[in-house]
Amino acid sequence: MSLSKKLIVGNWKMHGSRAANAELLKGLLGADLKGSAPRASVAVCVPFPYLGEVVAALQDSVMAVGSQDVSAHAHGAYTGEVSGAMVREFGAVYAIVGHSERRSYHAESDQLVADKAKAALAQGLVPIVCVGETLAERDAGQTDAVVARQLKAVIDTLGVDLARVVVAYEPVWAIGTGKTASPEQAQAVHAFLRAQLVAAQVSAASVPLLYGGSVKPDNAAELFAQPDIDGGLIGGASLKAADFAAIARAA
Ligand code: PGA
User: Fold this and answer.
1) Residues 29-58: tens digit of each pLDDT
2) Residue 157, exposed/middle/buried by CB under 10 A (0-12, 13-18, 19+)?
């Protein structure tokens, strides 16, 4: 099954400056995504310091804003962490959790990612939970086992709230490499993830499943046409207004 409305989310990663963001946002506002609004929800996940400015710039647009991480804790002595409540207070709607760059560079475990998803939900944010295998894991035939293990921590931790998350399948080997999973490869994993979600909870059948990893204007439509791909998590191409708008229109 495919959801009737796609979700297209930009992940700016650690890119930008106030001047560069203003330019990018001007381009996005000029691209006038209102026309695609009935078919696609659009959001951008930006570095924490820019949340307030980006929310203000996009307030009259169809675009929502999110963070790229969130603390597993509500508040307290956690130097350097940012809570979901803080992100929410600045007007963000989404929080990416468990991006592969955080799992690998910051040693985030499956359980920590699940705890972050839970904290995000508790603070009124929609967590976008990322899962995905490395090339070595794919070559070893472990793709399903890896994404099932990553998702299971979330399923076990969230309970009935599972239906309120977004899941992004991002094969690590396709992120920022220009190598996109073929629509068939992506669809196969998405169908598997959908089955895991439904087996855990029937109401989780409508959890949006995004694909991420070198999505570009010229491959987006084919990916989004797959029955279990409900949208995309877009890195590099989200930094170019024309490309990101073209991807949103491809939905
Ligand atoms: P990419 O990144 O589109 O640049 O491959 C996707 C992501 O990391 O979310």
Assistant:
1) 999 788 887 889 999 999 999 999 999 999
2) middle
